[in-house]
Amino acid sequence: MAARRRPGGTPGSPNSKFTQQELPACKPILTPKWVISVFVLVGVIFVPIGLVSLKASRKVVEIVDRYDDACVPANTTDKLAYIQNPTISKNCRRTLKVPKDMDAPIFVYYQLDNFYQNHRRYVKSRSDAQLRDPKKANDTSTCDPEGTANGMAIVPCGLIAWSIFNDTYGFVRNSKNLPVDKKDISWKSDREHKFGRDVFPKNFQNGSLIGGKTLDPNKSLSEQEDLIVWMRTAALPTFRKLYGRIHTDLKKGDTITVTLENNYNTYSFSGKKKLVLSTSTWLGGKNDFLGLAYLSVGGLCFFLAFAFTLLYLIKPRKMGDNNYLSWNRNPAGR
Q1: In the chain, which end has fewer C-beta atoms inside a 10 angstrom radius, N or C?
Q2: What is the CA radius of gyration of the chain?
Q3: Is residue 19 part of a domain?
């Protein structure tokens, strides 16, 4: 007769403490006092964080101006024909009023609505190897339908690069130009690792259909920061991308004259274009969601703590009372 194995054998044996679930373990009992205390603690932590975050967001000053419709000539009925006609001037002038003091640096963004950069075919239409390595200039297998033009490879290839934003902005205050600094508007990691310093645009926007901005063939891709910003695709159909920075303080009541070129075609897909001027705080740009989320969770925790406290005081329950077990309850009292 085979010898019987004793409990607590070797770790790999069937009768070890691990397999028999006899290891020491912490089994907390969630008493009403513990539950109420945890809810109160979470509320005490979350509500102040929410208030501070919301206050920081409310300190951000933003000027948002939609101009895609306003910059179309008044007698134009076909907006698509207007934007596709190169003989029609696309120059437009807009006037912005500064609502509050805006301390430098002031971030200049362009915002696009209803533009799906996250579309699967659009996102895949690029060649990361070509962007990094000049020896991979002909690697355009993943760039359809913008891989080649006139029998030669396009650098940078793909739909993303082809559709780069090409509206331009100029700012004037009190007859003085406000220069826009376009240096370091992209991620440092993108400039140093994803776009080669010895890779230059070639055969770009030379096809029959022009998508967006043209690139300087004498500047490497790592220096073309507008392209780098655009190539970091957005996850949502409404997004903002950094255009530059203004290193001049703006005062409340200042009038800013914006001279822009309305080149980018958003009319074919019912998109919208907006110019955004924004300050920032330690939390970043204007976004009330984080503060409201903390306040909501903290408020909910306070409410649950209050509700459990009332329940505990009005209808207390003895801990470990077997009478509450379903099989011990009186059927007539159910």
Answers
A1: N
A2: 31
A3: no
